[in-house]
């Protein structure tokens, strides 16, 4: 599904004057969500940056119906809402828009259960790799080595491989995306909307405040994550794995930019020692090995 | 329906909450300025060089605050060009960073403030 | 029109039938003893085609109420049930549901909070919901559990109220005990219970947000509105209770049930199934020459303030049976009643029967008689917690009784 940028809807799905920090990847991502799904979407948002981005009553900064909900309850609330709208015969697409903490940590139980039940919802994890809204605390999705206000010398554990964990629930659709590649995200959202059952989309969302980079670089850093192979764009459709551009050209490590280019722009990695960088490289290699192995088993490599 | 819009507020793009059965409800309506005129946050102002601009829409696509409107055919070569709403633009510079032909310059906001003061219009 | 039929059933089944008659469309629940039969029964009714609803088999109570709420805010009648730890696990969602002003009905089968594990009756779970903005009622028997559940849909969906509601029934004593229950016919229920109303629906269309940040002043106004709605609920409960009598022959217009209160000097007050035993105890005490009446709170929220005052303000003493204790002070009902009655009568709080310790009418007779003797000996007294345990009185905190006059 190719996306023609100029033909994307002009309707504002993010309202000027919302409360996000300058250069926010979440408001960027939400725009694409609206462009992809249009007015059929109803969005459930657990506690996180996007609860605050909406701004102050009596206005709200998103151009779609938003149901805010407590931190751990996004997937379960969306399940009930989707069932009700279906029973009423309402043509709707219920979407969860949750952060990495709301997905991989506190919301994980409800997410896993909704996936297992096969609820007809699209669950989007907007992954800015820490609890940014409360002031940059580490989450299960903070990568190795990253500074946060609760990992002052850098996190010593690896990022949870959440897309694979959700894919292991054998749901019909799982995809990784990035705010650096809106056309890819939009195309995947449209595809997800055409599939019945539980769909999971993981959106990599570099945060200027928490990652310590200049706000102008949000999209660039998101692209660098992909170009260096630190973030991989792929999708599982009915269990079948496919790499998406540009990641499909990056199986060969030679084709990837050096990860240092990605790391050096971010203050959260400033303290890294050479051995830390080696660990990060090893993690990236492991991720690629897993992908390559899966593609080989499928006979696609 | 629980929430309705007055004709006037619809025109302004700001929609108010009315209370069904007299209740106050925790409901808000989509509209610009949920956090006020966020243009005040800006320290750098994106300025579009319409001569350079090719009308590719990338700045429009990436702007996290949705303050860029592409005006069809208004460029010097008949191309679509971006027009930025400075009431709300936060000056993040994403637009400038993604522009493939460097048609957007980030200019220190103090320059404009000084100019506005000269013109006696300090409350932009 | 069909005829009502009398069937023998457990309290949990009565509640499940009420959900069916109310034409509930979505049920989300998680197993916990002693609530589980409700969900099993509903699942059975659905799979037999007797009930047209969807069951969401969630992985926790937190998700149970969240999914129920999600369905309700999406515009359908929704129901859940829980007990004890399950109720505590969903506690934050209780607040969220009430604050959203979305009608939802939940059954709470009362049970003790651990540790240690104890599946028996206690009111510490249900009484912990007092501050959440839910309507809270307690049944005395299985018929009332059915009747209150049916009424709760109509009350919570009344535009003057728009708050969720809990129907409490005592674990095992009602939940697992078979009693005769009269089931109505569907047509009559459909006449009694109008189609669902709610203040707004979450659906595609208007880009509204539920629950984004508000200025503190508006937050306070939202709470003021909820308090006003609770006051409205008193009126609505009376109206609906009276109408229920018209349709089904049983009158629920009183928020407080008074048994031989008018000529009583002493009132035994409390809530739930053991108040039936309290009535027997009152009769026994009357045989001994003490004029005792029983005041049973059918509703905890809205608190039936004026009814309580009318029934008990001028009495010599009120003995409050509490199957729960706010540890460090007194039983929650004692605290509520003391405040409503301004401690004008002597007030004696009796925490008892906690964690399912069996309390017979003889026990009630014994501690009530003891309380009456204290009053007769000392004049006006105020005793927050006079614990009754295995036939003995244990004055606890404050360690000695407080003499007022
Ligand atoms: S500076 Fe940021 S907010 Fe302003 S127009 Fe550019 S991208 Fe949008
Ligand atoms: S990104 Fe640059 S070239 Fe493209 S429309 Fe914007 S200003 Fe013009």
CATH class bucket of the largest domain in chain B: Alpha Beta
Looking at CATH, the homologous superfamily of chain A is Thiamin diphosphate (ThDP)-binding fold, Pyr/PP domains
Which whole number gives the mean pLDDT of chain B?
Answer: 83
| Largest beta sheet: strand ordering of chain A | 3-1-4-5-7-6-8-9
If you compute it from the alpha carbons, what radius of gyration of chain A comes out, rounded to the nearest whole angstrom?
18 Å
Largest sheet of chain A: 8 strands, mixed
| Total domain count of chain B | 2
As for the CATH topology of chain A, it is Rossmann fold
Q: Under the CATH scheme, which architecture of chain A would be assigned?
A: 3-Layer(aba) Sandwich
List the topology elements:
The complex is a heterotrimer of chains A (about 300), B (about 120) and C (about 400).
Chain A (H helix, E strand, L loop, with lengths): L24 H13 L3 E6 L2 H5 L5 E2 L5 E4 L4 H14 L5 E7 H6 L2 H10 L4 E6 L34 H6 L5 E6 L3 H12 L5 E6 L3 H4 L6 H10 L6 E4 L2 E4 L15 H5 L10 H25 L3
Parallel strand pairs in A: 1-3, 1-4, 4-5, 5-7, 6-7
Antiparallel strand pairs in A: 6-8, 8-9
Chain B lengths: L6 H6 L14 E4 L13 E5 L9 H5 L5 E4 L9 E4 L9 H5 L5 E5 H10 L6
Chain C lengths: L4 E6 H11 L4 E4 L6 H12 L6 E4 L3 H13 L4 E5 L1 H6 L1 H10 L4 E6 L13 H4 L7 E4 L3 H15 L8 E6 L7 E6 L2 H7 L15 E3 L5 H33 L7 E4 L6 E5 L4 H13 L4 E6 L1 E3 L3 H8 L4 E6 L9 H9 L5 E6 L9 H18 L2 E3 L2 E4 L2 E4 L6 E2 L2
Parallel strand pairs in C: 2-3, 2-4, 4-5, 5-7, 6-7, 11-12, 11-14, 14-15, 15-16
Antiparallel strand pairs in C: 1-8, 6-13, 10-12, 16-19, 17-18
Helix pairs in contact in C: 1-2, 1-7, 3-5, 7-9, 10-13
Bound molecules: iron/sulfur cluster (2 copies).
One iron/sulfur cluster binds next to α3 of chain B.
Can you give a write-up of this model?
The complex is a heterotrimer of chains A (301), B (124) and C (405). With 301 residues, chain A is α/β, with parallel strands linked by helices. Chain A has helices at 25-37, 49-53, 74-87, 100-105, 108-117, 162-167, 182-193, 208-211, 218-227, 259-263, 274-298; strands at residues 41-46, 59-60, 66-69, 93-99, 122-127, 173-178, 199-204, 234-237, 240-243. In chain A, strands 3-1-4-5-7-6-8-9 form an 8-stranded mixed sheet, sandwiched between helices. In chain A, a hairpin with a 2-residue loop joins strand 8 (234-237) and strand 9. The radius of gyration of chain A is 18 Å and the shape is globular. Chain B is of the alpha+beta class and 124 residues long. Chain B has 2 domains: 1-30, no CATH class; 38-123, Alpha-Beta Plaits (2-Layer Sandwich). Chain B has a two-stranded antiparallel ribbon. Chain C is of the alpha/beta class and 405 residues long. In chain C, 39% of the residues lie in helices and 21% in strands. In chain C, the strands form 4 sheets. A 7-stranded mixed sheet of chain C has the order 3-2-4-5-7-6-13, with helices on both faces. A 7-stranded mixed sheet of chain C has the order 10-12-11-14-15-16-19, with helices on both faces. In chain C, strands 1-8 form a two-stranded antiparallel sheet. Chain C starts with a strand and ends with a strand. The model of chain C has no long low-confidence stretch (mean pLDDT 95). Chain A binds chain C through residues 39-42, 44, 51-52, 54-57, 60, 62-70, 72-73, 75-85, 87-88, 90-93, 109-110, 112-113, 116-117, and chain C through 25-26, 28, 54, 56-60, 62-64, 66-76, 78, 92-93, 96, 202-215, 218. One iron/sulfur cluster is lined by residues 48, 53-59, 82, 99, 101, 103-104 of chain B.
């Amino acid at each position: 599904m190719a996306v023609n940028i100029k033909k994307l809807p002009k309707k504002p799905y993010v309202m000027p004057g919302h409360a996000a920090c300058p250069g926010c990847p979440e408001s960027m991502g939400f725009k694409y969500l609206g462009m992809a799904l249009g007015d059929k979407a109803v969005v459930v948002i657990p506690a996180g940056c996007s609860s605050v981005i909406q701004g102050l009553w009596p206005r709200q900064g998103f151009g779609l119906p938003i149901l805010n909900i407590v931190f751990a309850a996004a997937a379960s609330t969306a399940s009930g809402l989707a069932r009700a709208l279906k029973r009423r015969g309402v043509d709707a697409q219920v979407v969860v828009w949750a952060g990495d903490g709301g997905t991989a940590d506190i919301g994980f139980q409800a997410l896993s259960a909704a996936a297992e039940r096969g609820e007809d919802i699209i669950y989007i994890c907007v992954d800015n790799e820490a609890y940014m809204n409360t002031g940059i605390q580490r989450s299960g999705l903070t990568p190795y080595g990253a500074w946060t206000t609760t990992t002052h010398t850098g996190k010593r554990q690896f990022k949870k491989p959440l897309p694979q964990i959700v894919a292991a629930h054998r749901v019909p659709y799982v995809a990784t995306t990035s705010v650096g590649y809106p056309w890819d995200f939009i195309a995947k959202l449209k595809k997800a909307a055409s599939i019945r059952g539980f769909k999971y989309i993981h959106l990599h969302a570099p945060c200027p405040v928490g990652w310590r980079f200049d706000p102008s670089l949000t999209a660039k850093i998101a692209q660098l994550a992909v170009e260096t192979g630190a973030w991989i764009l792929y999708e599982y459709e009915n269990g079948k794995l496919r790499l998406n551009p540009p990641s499909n050209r990056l199986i060969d490590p030679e084709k990837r930019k050096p990860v240092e280019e990605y790391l050096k722009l971010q203050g959260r990695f400033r303290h890294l020692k050479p051995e830390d960088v080696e660990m990060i490289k090893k993690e990236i290699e492991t991720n690629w090995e897993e992908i390559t192995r899966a593609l080989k088993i499928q006979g696609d490599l | 329906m629980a929430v309705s819009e007055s004709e006037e507020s619809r025109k302004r793009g700001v929609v108010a909450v009315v209370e069904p059965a007299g209740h106050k409800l925790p409901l808000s309506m989509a509209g610009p300025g949920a956090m006020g005129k966020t243009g005040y946050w800006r320290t750098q102002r994106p300025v579009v060089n319409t001569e350079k601009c090719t009308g590719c829409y990338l700045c429009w696509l990436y702007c996290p605050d949705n303050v860029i409107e592409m005006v069809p055919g208004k460029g010097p070569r008949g191309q679509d060009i971006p027009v930025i709403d400075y009431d709300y633009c936060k000056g993040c510079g994403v637009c400038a960073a993604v522009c493939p032909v460097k048609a957007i310059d980030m200019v220190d906001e103090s320059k404009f403030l000084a100019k506005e003061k000269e013109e006696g219009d300090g409350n932009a | 029109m069909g005829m009502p039929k009398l069937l023998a059933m457990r309290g949990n089944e009565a509640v499940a039938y009420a959900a069916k008659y109310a034409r509930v469309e979505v049920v989300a629940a998680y197993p916990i003893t002693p609530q589980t039969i409700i969900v099993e029964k509903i699942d059975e009714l659905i799979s037999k085609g007797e009930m047209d609803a969807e069951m969401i088999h969630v992985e926790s109570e937190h998700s149970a109420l969240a999914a129920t709420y999600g369905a309700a805010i999406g515009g359908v009648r929704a129901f859940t049930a829980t007990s004890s730890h399950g109720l505590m696990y969903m506690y934050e969602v209780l607040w969220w549901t009430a604050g959203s002003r979305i009608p939802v009905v939940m059954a709470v089968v009362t049970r003790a909070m651990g540790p240690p594990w104890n599946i028996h009756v206690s009111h510490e779970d249900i009484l912990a919901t007092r501050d959440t903005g839910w309507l809270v009622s307690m049944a005395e028997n299985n018929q009332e559990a059915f009747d209150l559940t049916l009424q709760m849909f109509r009350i919570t969906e009344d535009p003057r109220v728009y708050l969720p509601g809990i129907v409490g029934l005592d674990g095992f004593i009602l939940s697992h005990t078979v009693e005769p229950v009269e089931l109505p016919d569907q047509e009559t229920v459909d006449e009694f219970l109008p189609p669902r109303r709610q203040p707004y629906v979450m659906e595609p269309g208007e880009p509204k947000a539920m629950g984004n940040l508000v200025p503190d002043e508006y937050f306070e106004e939202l709470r003021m509105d909820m308090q006003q709605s609770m006051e409205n609920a008193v009126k609505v409960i009376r109206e609906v209770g009276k109408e229920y009598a018209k349709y089904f022959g049983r009158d629920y217009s009183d928020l407080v049930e008074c048994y031989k209160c008018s000529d009583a000097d002493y009132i035994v007050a409390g809530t739930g199934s053991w108040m039936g035993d309290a009535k027997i105890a009152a009769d026994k005490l009357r045989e001994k020459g003490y004029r005792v009446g029983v005041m049973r709170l059918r509703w905890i929220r809205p608190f039936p303030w004026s009814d309580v005052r009318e029934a008990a303000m001028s009495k010599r003493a009120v003995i409050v049976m509490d199957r729960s204790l706010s540890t460090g002070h007194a039983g929650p009902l004692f605290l509520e009643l003391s405040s409503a009655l301004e401690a004008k009568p002597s007030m004696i709080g009796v925490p008892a029967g906690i964690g399912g310790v069996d309390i017979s009418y003889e026990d009630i007779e014994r501690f009530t008689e003891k309380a009456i003797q204290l009053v007769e000996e000392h004049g006006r007294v105020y005793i927050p917690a006079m614990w009754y345990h295995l036939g003995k009185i244990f004055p606890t905190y404050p360690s000695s009784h407080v003499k007022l006059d």
